[in-house]
């Protein structure tokens, strides 16, 4: 989507030489968040239970932003700590591969919107929220943030977004971490 469309909607996302670029400042300042919340409130989202059910164009988008968006299904092992352990035997053979860096909590898919929450590890477990607005396989807008509570369905996520969207450091710090 161009940064400015006919209705003056300014996306947090642009396409430059065929590659998506996010507007970090716009996301950190929650531009479009209110409109995305309103759109989500009206949208019917089908709950998806596995990573395999995430559309490939969304997965490709996330891969391009993170150099590989590794994510486990709910309940599966994932890299909770800040380091990944690759185990090898005494001969140097890999015993276990690196685990995904994230674990899916919720994914809801609508006609032109998708909503996702997942965990990342580090010093502590963090929860992230992603909102995608799309048409066909083209992403029109994107917003991401963090929350301090487990939000496992659309209603819990929307309540958390509405409660924290106008608070300093409520949904974002000074950086975007996917």
List keywords for this structure.
globular, disordered N terminus, 178 residues, two-stranded antiparallel sheet
Topology:
Layout: E1 13-16, E2 19-22, H1 24-28, H2 33-42, E3 46-48, H3 56-66, E4 71-72, E5 87-88, E6 94-96, E7 102-109, E8 113-120, E9 126-135, E10 138-147, H4 154-164
Number of helices: 4
What about the largest sheet?
Answer: 6 strands, mixed
The percentage helix is 10-25%
User: What number of structural domains do the residues give?
Assistant: 1
Instruction: Report the principal-axis shape.
Output: globular
The sequence of SSEs as H and E is EEHHEHEEEEEEEH
Terminal CA distance: 21 Å
Residues in β-strands, percent: 25-35%
Regions with pLDDT < 50 over 5+ consecutive residues? 1-6
Question: Your description of this structure?
Answer:
The protein has one domain (13-81, 97-164). Strand 9 and strand 10 (138-147) form a beta hairpin. The protein has helices spanning 24-28, 33-42, 56-66, 154-164; strands at residues 13-16, 19-22, 46-48, 71-72, 87-88, 94-96, 102-109, 113-120, 126-135, 138-147. Helix content is 21%, strand content 30%. Helix 2 (33-42) packs antiparallel against helix 4 (154-164). Residues 1-6 have low confidence and may be disordered. The strands form three sheets. Strands 3, 4, 7, 8, 9 and 10 form a six-stranded mixed beta sheet that branches. It has a two-stranded antiparallel sheet with strand order 1-2. The protein contains four helices and ten strands. It is of the alpha+beta class and 178 residues long.
